[in-house]
Amino acid sequence: MIIYDLLCENDHRMEGWFSGPEDYDFQLDQGLIRCPHCDTPAVRRVPSAVALASGTRAEPAAMTSVAALPADSQAMGLYRQLVGALMASTEDVGTAFAEEARKIHYREAPERGIRGSATDEEFDALRDEGIELIRLPIVGKRKLS
Predict the structure, then answer these.
(1) pTM of full prediction above 0.70
(2) What's the rounded Cα separation, in Å, for the pair 25 and 82?
(3) Beta strands 91-94 and 13-18: pairing type?
(4) pLDDT band at 125 (very low <50, low <70, confident <90, very high)
(5) Nearest alpha carbon to residue 86 among 115, 111, 58
(6) Which own/partner contact pairs does 121-130 have at CB distance under 8 Å and 24+ positions apart?
(7) Per-residue pLDDT tens over the stretch 35-91
(8) Contacts for 68 with CB less than 8 Å, ≥ 6 apart
């Protein structure tokens, strides 16, 4: 089973579960994947995200930068090293990410780097509160399709 984050042409985010990449491609080609919000078949895969936060404050970025890199490129290797270093130097708080990030921000918990998962709404709310955080897709060692 593989789970993809999907985005429609109207910027509605959703999650799709497929038996593999071929299943996703087949369903997309057949027009079987549709946005549950607006019913458009114009849906594409987007990178999955992991949120990371620190206890410091910063202004939210006005725009998100996106890069597509070949899986075997030097840049992808450096990105994997960066993600590995972040994973090794942060505490995994899982789905309690938003709650724990707020505790750290408001000094109700010790300041430290954390990682975990957050919904789009939680991510936006944290950013609106002035909590510095970033989303990073986790890239495996095997070649991605």
Answers:
(1) no
(2) 30
(3) unpaired
(4) very high
(5) 115
(6) 122/97, 122/98, 123/51, 123/98, 125/98, 126/51, 126/53, 126/98, 126/101, 126/102, 127/60, 128/60, 129/102, 129/105, 130/57, 130/58, 130/105
(7) 888 889 999 887 655 445 544 444 444 444 455 556 566 777 777 787 778 888 889
(8) none
- The Cα–Cα gap between 137 and 83 comes to 9
Burial of 95 (0-12, 13-18, 19+ CB in 10 A): exposed
Mean pLDDT, residues 23-46: 87
pLDDT of residue 126: 92
Q: Is 104 exposed, middle or buried (0-12, 13-18, 19+ CB in 10 A)?
A: buried
127 Rama sector, left if φ>0, alpha if ψ -120 to 50, beta otherwise:
alpha
| Polymer length of the chain | 145
